[in-house]
Amino acid sequence: MKNLRKVGAGFLVFIFTMNLVNPVNATSVEPVYVNPPVEEIKQLITETANKHNIPPEIMKAIAFNETAYKQFDDAGQPIISPDGGIGMMQVTPDNIDTDLLVDEQKLKTDIAYNIEIAAQVLNKKWSTSFLPQINGGERNVLENWYFAVMAYNGLAKQNDPNFHPDTAYQSKIYKRLGGHSFIVQEHDYFLFPKFDINYKEGSSIMAFPEKDYKTNVMTSSQQMYNVGDTVYINGRDGVVNFREGSITGSPTKQLSHNTELTITGAPIETEYRENDYVYYPVATTDEVEGYVASAYLTPEPGKLFEFPDLLGYRTEITYLAERKIINGYTDGTFGPDQTVSRTQAVVMILRTLGVDYQNSNAPDPGFTDVSPATNEYKAIAEAVSLGFISGKENNTFDPAGKLTRGQMAKILVKAFELTGESDKTFTDVAAPTDDSDGHWAYDYISTLAANKITTGYPNGTFLPQADISRQHFALFIYRYLN
Questions:
Q1: ∠ at Cα 18 (12, 24), nearest 5°?
Q2: How buried is 422 (Cβ within 10 angstroms: 0-12 exposed, 13-18 middle, 19+ buried)?
Q3: How far is CA 412 from CA 106, 308, 396, 450, 477, in A?
Q4: Residue 259 and residue 245: Cα distance in Å, rounded?
Q5: Among 72, 179, 224, 426, who pairs with 33 as Cys (CB 3.0-4.6 Å)?
Q6: How many CB atoms lie within 10 A of CB 60?
Q7: In the beta sheet, which residues pair with residue 429?
Q8: Nearest to residue 222, comparing CAs of 175, 169, 270, 178?
Q9: Is residue 206 within 8 Å of residue 160, measured between CB atoms?
């Protein structure tokens, strides 16, 4: 016998039950459940997330990371993890440290209910007072959900990004979010500052002495638009396909960067498990209706970083410019072969680290040629306070002085706390021996090589005394981040 169990508006889960014909020996088995199509699951997640004012991208990334959008396993039974996580969103009743009342049986069999409780749990984590806030806490900004996502899985040391930058729960969620919501294709998208996290003696639960953080970039959700909203095309990958008729139809025209559109309907999900983005029905200013992928819609017109003087490293430099780590010149060029000053290096590294140096209270660095009137004085003071840069022997800083490649290696290793040694050698960087200390920057350069941040020149040299160019400095920072 086949029964239908309604689990949400328009969503059905098939349940199969079996009974023996002989009523004397009749026995029953557990119902066998079947997961609905992926697009229906994603639609339910999007609707639930928007109801709770949560970016749908966040909840989709959680659903995929937990169970790949599945409520039931291959045997047709509710997915239950060894630690008690139930269903698609892996809600764990015993670990819900909120005042939510949860029906455990419904968590197992009712997909809509499982997603609903997950949204409520995530909202509770968002409002937890002892968690830090990012960028003032606007709910539509994806970066701002970092600590709520972390707490959704737990504040144990395994989720401390200082110890586990790649495997912490929230790191995996944001990696999924960036790539599969199609925010970016070529590299990791999200960049967070280093967080101050410690532990009370005898405890493995995180504590947060700092309560406010900022990120260089604030990324608005691309799936929280309402009918009537004005949006614009983000032409980061060039022109964008516009489809009339359906989301699967052939493109009928291509839209350029900052083309104005109006949202005309609810978002439409795709059938593909790897796609977390949606399509929005939109209308152009001349009232042509069609569909555009959410990944290319922004709430405000944006700037494209297209430096006309770049011959190489275009991806790397654009990546850093989009994250406000580096800037071009006022004439729109980047100046790839221009040298980097000591002050410029300090500012770019602080931006990479996500340090809000503009509001720094670091003490005066004590250099004879640096005062509060010096350009980027607070950045210099903060860098000295963090210990990744120092002055010269005559107690000067030389703010406008050029930075050599050897000095750059030392600064990057200290700023990013890099470790490791490489077997790679450079013909112009002498290794230490029993009779010689070798080149003063040998260890720093070796560490850069060990971390795949530098490969040197094709002829086997590193050129430690040469001034570092803007494009090479950008390349080294990009490699560190990716």
A1: 145
A2: middle
A3: 53, 28, 20, 13, 8
A4: 20
A5: 72
A6: 27
A7: 426
A8: 178
A9: yes
Residue bearing tokens 């359906």? 246
Three-class SS of 55-98: CHHHHHHHHHHHHCCCCECCCCCECECCCCCECCCCECHHHCCC
Give the pLDDT confidence of 126-175 residue by residue, as tens digits. 999 999 999 999 999 999 999 999 999 999 999 999 999 999 999 999 99
- Which of 22-36, 56-70, 295-309, 395-409 tops mean pLDDT? 56-70
pLDDT at 28: 60
**Which pair of structure tokens corresponds to residue 179?**
């790539």
Q: Report d(CA 428, CA 464) in Å as an integer.
A: 8
Kindly report, residue by residue over 280-319, the tens digit of the pLDDT.
999 999 999 999 999 999 999 988 888 999 999 998 999 9
Q: In 140-249, where do the E strands start and end?
A: 198-199, 206-207, 212-213, 230-233, 240-242
Q: How many CB atoms lie within 10 A of CB 76?
A: 15
Q: Which tokens belong to 46?
A: 């999007």
Q: How far is CA 397 from CA 210, 387, 392, 473, in A?
A: 30, 14, 6, 20
pTM of the shown model = 0.83
Q: Which 3 state secondary structure label does DSSP give 258?
A: coil
Q: How many CB atoms lie within 10 A of CB 70?
A: 18
* Residue 400 predicted with pLDDT over 70: yes
Helix, strand, coil percentages for the chain (3-state, nearest 5): 30, 15, 55
| Burial (0-12, 13-18, 19+ Cβ within 10 Å), 192 | middle
CA distances from 472 to 113, 357, 453, 475 (A): 52, 24, 11, 5
pLDDT of residue 304: 86
**Could you tell me the two tokens for 44?**
């339910």
More confident residue, 303 or 417: 417
Residues 37, 43 contacting (CB under 8 angstroms): no
Q: Are strands 32-34 and 133-134 parallel, antiparallel or unpaired?
A: unpaired
